[in-house]
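Minutes, project check-in

Agenda point 3 was the complex the collaborators sent over. CS summarized: two entities, 667 residues total, and the question is how they sit relative to each other. Sequences were read into the notes so everyone works from the same version.
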Amino acid sequence: MFFLIGCLFTCIMLKANTIEVCSSCTIKSIKEGVSKSSDFDTLLIKKGTYKEFNIIIDKPLTVIGKSFPVVDGEDQGEIITIISDYVTIDGLFIINVGTSYTTDYAAIRVVRSKHFLIQNVVLEKLFFGIYLEKASEGKVFHNNIIGDAVEEFNSGNGIQLWHCKNVIVSQNIVQHVRDGIYLEFSDDIVIKNNISSNNVRYGLHFMFSNNDEYVNNTFDNNGSGVAVMFSKKIKMHNNTFKKNWGSSSFGLLLKEINDAEIIGNTFEENTTGISIEGSNRVRYEKNDLINNGWAIKVRGACYTNTFVNNNFLYNSFDISYNSKLNDNEFKNNYWSSYTGYDLDKNGIGDVPYRPVKLFSYIVNRTPETIVLLRSLFMDIIDFSEKVSPVFTPDNLTDANPLMRKFQ
Amino acid sequence: MFKILKYSFFDLIRSRWSYVYFLFYLALGFVLLFLNNDLSKAVITLMNVIIVLVPLIGTIFGVMYFYNSKEFTELLLAQPLKRSSIFLGQYLGVAGSLTMSLVFGLGIPFVLYGLFKSDAIWNFSLLLVTGTFLTLIFTALAFNIALAHENKIKGFGFAVLLWLFLAVIYDGLFLLSLIVFEEYPLDTFSLVATMFNPIDLSRTLILLKLDISALLGYTGAIFKQFFGTNYGLILSLVMLLLWTIFPIFSLIFKAKRKDF
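CS then shared the predicted structure for the full assembly.
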């Protein structure tokens, strides 16, 4: 049976033709090309400018652009909509997607399709970039999306996944859009090696998406780095979050996240490195938190999280807590402001470290008091609190702080 | 006046303490830059030192010098000289030599580590300017205290108490009032309270220039709006200037009336 289907499939593939589209060919537009092709054909689009929008690809086609032909939507609306399985889009330069306040026009939209591949596409002047809607088993690879978003309300997202499954998003560059990559109700998605920078809102945004994984991405200078909300079992490995700097910015926001893994990431120069709210059983391991205002801000309802082997380097505040209750575990981390000693030379400090300063507790209570940052008085009361904790959670300690940076 | 200024100045320049002070800053500058080559980081660390140490040393040094040169002052008073020029000359001599130790002590290592090619130059200049102001202010306050108290122990006690008040206790009271009145809008209050303490004013000025203002959140935004603009900067500098001028005037005023 399988053999038969396989044979049938190859037979169809063998029948596939290549159709050329160019200004001097018999077929002059992409739309015409799509309508004149049959299943599993290849559309070869040659260099030139094609002023087209609402191109609907309703059969399995491979659309290849030769030396980046320009598809200009002239701000009319959506440009390419894919409603069939097995569609490949490769090497197009798509510009001028229409902006609308009622419809989410996208440069490329994939609707209820499987096995798609979108690669080497360049998008500029867009509203939404690549919009995957109830699509699955596909790949978005090596695209370059450069928007011109200034405000949140009239801009769209670079790559958006809505109700998707098993999609790989890799090696894309997304800049100057609202959310670089946005996931909603999408499970089993792999996001790796992307660079998302200078976006108005978030570099990467998760909503109600489970079992996803993002690895080796860089989130640089976004409104805020990554927001992960209402999701379960997310793996976050080896990403870099940096320069998310502003009065309400953060590197990573976790809200209602359970059973996640945050391993080997770097958080550098963010106002808040990681902001946590209502997140349980999250493992933080081997992360570097460098030069942040607040390295980790715990806002409440966070239980049984573990912080192991992280490096906290030169943050203004290492941890901020807003309650006296603590159910999270800190062990074997390196804290640059640790002043204890190690008499038995086993690499672990003999005195527990208290990461929550009294000042950070006070600032949480009355934000105005931050104006006393770096005042001598604050250093004195921090010291006295360190010696005998009264206000900060007294079980919030790293009992075995490392003496040297974890490598 | 300038003769007395010159005399006091060179007297101090020759004294051991000016050298110690100068060498301390020199060593501090070099060690900081040796430990991390980043000029702007070194500026932040230096700020912590400057806002605590400069006022303390200005106060102690001022009181000490005044009491030590008391006999010389009395000798001068017997001469046909204006009282204001005697005291002003001495004051400027002390403040000038302290400022010089500060500026050269910190300036030399930073210049050697390439300050002029770095963008930290403005922050560093601001640091030196506030350091200079703090020296001028606290030396003048110390002279006032010393002039008011014949008893050395009392004078020293008050001088140290003054430093303690402005460097530590004031912030404590400030914090307390912020917490007690947390229900009320406190932005204007914190701005004004900052203005009334030269140490807090210097700290805030430098902190906001060093771009950690994003840390400060909403309150920081208001502070940034105020201190970050030229208007705020000028107003703060004017405030520091007033802080310098008032003690000097009171010094002259008191000196004229004092019965030696």
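Noted in discussion: The longest strand of chain A covers residues 224-232.
Follow-up: revisit at the next meeting once the mutant set is ready.
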